Amino acid sequence: MTLMLEPFDNTETVIRAAPIGICVTDAEGHFEMVNPAYCDFYGYREEELLGQHFTLVVPEADHALMNDLHRRFVAGDGDMEVSHECEVLGKDGQPMNILAKAARIQDGRGEVKKVTFVVDITERKAMEQRLEYLAHHDELTGLLNRRAGLGLLEEEIQRSRRYGTALSLASCDLDHFKRVNDRHGHAMGDQVLSETARLMKETMRQHDHVIRLGGEEFLILLPGVTQEQASQAVERLRQSLATTPIAEAQIHLTLSAGIAQLQDDEEADALLERADRTLYGAKHKGRNQVQETDESHPASESAS
């Protein structure tokens, strides 16, 4: 079914006055009409659009798909009206997001056209993407947050068991970090945390996972790595952090870490408990050191 459209007399007046972007394209996809709101949104003058193919405002990677959708829609393959969200390009090349609703129409000569109504949802999409990012990442450091990190730990445990590979983790604390906030203020403390997180990611392997659990507490997952290898890797991190001045205040930080390797059918909570217990041991022995879990003690032993 196709809507009938009278010759563009009164219809054109309504389209041009509409506060949202509207365009009419012919069966081949060329612009036959664009209203001022459409031109303003894309940054083109009317004469720059008329006669041009609609893919002028579509990212090149999407040309084939959009052409196929247009062809099938005009041919009557599917609903008479469709709506979808997509990315488009303004004249300046900047990407934008729109909600486009299209309908098949016929003009007074019986020729099939497509009229498309365009609503700018760029800010809404940016907000959605930001919220999605914050659901999995720590806003200050950009690292995975506690919830996402612990979920990833469960995945890595399953992968380790499926392929019979080692998995180790490091429970880490920045030593005496409260002194940074007390001496330099919380703004500097935030900068120090951000730059420390960057140093941690740069120092560890690309496929290791650095997670901010909260405050100055971090967790590092090291897939395919034994406890001894993990200890060596985190020791390199400890040395790098201890010798690298951080932030504008040129602050030197130290790190304490406890290393544990996944055992047999051990659950995530038990693995984390062993790493935390070992971290407490490193702190008790004077901080600024990496300590391995004593594997002779059962995982179920309570923390001292």
From TrEMBL:
Q: Could you tell me which residues belong to the region Disordered?
A: 280-304
Tell me one GO molecular function of this protein.
catalytic activity
Fetch the Pfam families from UniProt. Answer: GGDEF, PAS_4
What superkingdom does the record give?
A: Bacteria
Cite the PAC domain residue spans from the record: 82-133
* InterPro entries tied to this protein: Biofilm_reg_signaling, GGDEF_dom, Nucleotide_cyclase, PAS, PAS-assoc_C, PAS-like_dom_sf, PAS_4, Rev_trsase/Diguanyl_cyclase
Report the CDD domains cross-referenced here.
Answer: GGDEF, PAS
Cofactor(s) required for function per UniProt: Mg(2+)
Record-linked SUPFAM superfamilies? Nucleotide cyclase (SSF55073), PYP-like sensor domain (PAS domain) (SSF55785)
Domain GGDEF: where?
A: 165-295
Span of domain PAS: 14-76
NCBIfam families given for it? GGDEF, sensory_box
- Protein name in UniProt: PAS domain S-box-containing protein/diguanylate cyclase (GGDEF) domain-containing protein
